[in-house]
Design a protein that fits this description.
The complex is a heterodimer. Chain A has helices at residues 4-15, 21-29, 31-46, 59-72, 88-110, 130-156, 164-189, 194-219. By secondary structure, chain A is an all-alpha fold. The model of chain A has no long low-confidence stretch (mean pLDDT 76). The longest helix of chain A is centred in the middle third of the chain and has 27 residues, at 130-156. In chain B, 64% of the residues lie in helices and 0% in strands. Classes of the chains: A mainly alpha, B mainly alpha. The interface between A and B is large, with 45 and 62 residues.
């Protein structure tokens, strides 16, 4: 099980700056994190030597020839604009419709019984009280555990087929994980902020949808 | 010493005299000036080749990608809007040319589990050779964007801000791509390089 300290080490390594003393102190007690820090340092030290340099006397003449050919070739005609500009009347109609729809949406949202996702945070005070915080953390843990189960299900299916879509989902998951880590770091600083909790929940929701899409891709 | 790009400027008072080499090169490339492309190649060609070679894993294909990139720069320089530095944008064009080639390669050739790393890029230089060789092979197995981000950051020394412009991601996205690349490489190193004590 990864502890708070392991996540902290990950965060520091992701940030790529010098590792904070608290994370280093954790690594002294955690073999896995110590190994990871050591491997990252080895990679950082070895990578610059991988830059390649070689002579290619033919390349510049080739490039100049290719540019001359491109210059001599007839330029493709500029494509027509995708759509004609809107007349002022149509633009006004669109704007009015947008305002009406936004007002309607706000009105419906205001009267929705599920408007506040977390009990304890109100529009007047966007901060949670202790009871609400415990409730939120319990539900959040259950939600995260269910998403982790989904992630392990994806892993159990084996590596995704080498398709562009699967690769895109994997990258999207990485970016979401990164955003979750950042958000968690902010929550660590301010545990009672309901707004941050809502953001985190939205990210987990997105992660769940992406995992489901990836699972479909792996199955197909 | 007068550099080639300075010779492109007309004599006499000209606001371009105070312009950066980047701006002067851009103007020359927009005008299709051969000397500007020669200067662009002289200044950036080696690094463009190195980036392409690491992303593609093959020197000959890297040279082709750099040639593609120069033609694309010639075609697109007029539309360059200056949202990033010209010297950063040209690497975006190179990396895109490499990604196009990787996509085409994937459509026509089954994926090589080693990432298609070519022997002509065999490791040389200082440092632990076992780690370098493992890294050489490991880079080839990374997904294209992680590979590009890692090469740009760890091998070529671009900043995350520059990589965010080159790859069209946020600075945080660039850090995540590099982090994930290193995490994969670290796992590969564990498998391929026996653990040893770090020199103190």
């Amino acid at each position: 099980m990864r502890s708070w300290g392991c996540r902290r080490v990950d965060r520091e390594l992701r940030r790529g700056d010098t590792i904070a003393p608290s994370a280093t102190a954790h690594a002294e007690r955690c073999t896995r994190c110590a190994e990871r820090i050591r491997a990252f340092r080895q990679i950082d030290a070895a990578a610059p030597a991988l830059a390649r340099a070689w002579d290619s006397p033919d390349l510049l003449p080739r490039i100049l020839r290719a540019i001359d050919e491109a210059a001599a070739a007839p330029r493709p005609e500029t494509p027509a604009p995708a759509r004609a500009p809107l007349s002022p009347w149509v633009a006004t109609a669109y704007a009015t419709a947008l305002v009406v729809l936004s007002t309607l949406g706000l009105w419906v949202f205001r009267d929705s019984p599920n408007r506040t996702p977390f009990s304890g945070a109100t529009a007047e005070s966007p901060f949670l009280n202790d009871d609400a915080l415990r409730d939120v953390e319990r539900k959040e843990s259950a939600y995260v555990a269910s998403i982790d189960r989904l992630a392990s299900l994806v892993r159990a299916r084996g590596p995704a087929p080498p398709s562009g879509l699967a690769e895109s989902y994997q990258e999207k998951l990485m970016l979401i994980d990164s955003a979750i880590a950042e958000c968690r770091a902010q929550i660590d600083q301010n545990r009672y902020n309901a707004h941050l909790r809502q953001q985190l929940l939205a990210m987990y929701g997105e992660k769940k949808r992406t995992l489901e899409d990836l699972l479909k891709e792996v199955k197909s | 010493m007068t550099r080639a790009w300075e010779a492109l400027l007309p004599a006499g008072p000209d606001p371009a005299r105070g312009a950066s080499p980047d701006a002067i090169l851009l103007e020359g490339c927009r005008a299709g000036n051969r000397v500007s492309f020669e200067e662009l190649y002289r200044v950036h060609g080696a690094r463009m080749k190195s980036v392409a070679a690491r992303v593609l894993g093959d020197r000959a294909e890297a040279e082709d990608a750099v040639q593609d990139a120069f033609v694309n720069i010639f075609r697109s320089a007029a539309g360059f809007q200056g949202r990033s530095r010209f010297s950063t944008w040209i690497y975006r064009v190179v990396v895109n040319a490499c990604h196009d080639r990787l996509r085409r390669r994937r459509e026509t050739v089954p994926l090589d589990p080693t990432g298609g790393e070519n022997e002509t890029l065999a490791a040389t230089g200082s440092g632990d050779p076992a780690i370098r060789v493992a890294l050489e092979r490991g880079i080839g197995s990374l997904p294209a964007r992680q590979r590009s981000a890692f090469v740009l950051f760890a091998v070529e020394g671009f900043s995350h801000r520059e990589i965010s412009d080159i790859l069209g991601v946020s600075v945080g996205g660039s850090k995540t791509l590099v982090f994930e690349a290193k995490r994969r490489l670290a796992r590969l190193l564990e498998k391929r390089v026996p653990a040893r004590e770090e020199p103190s």
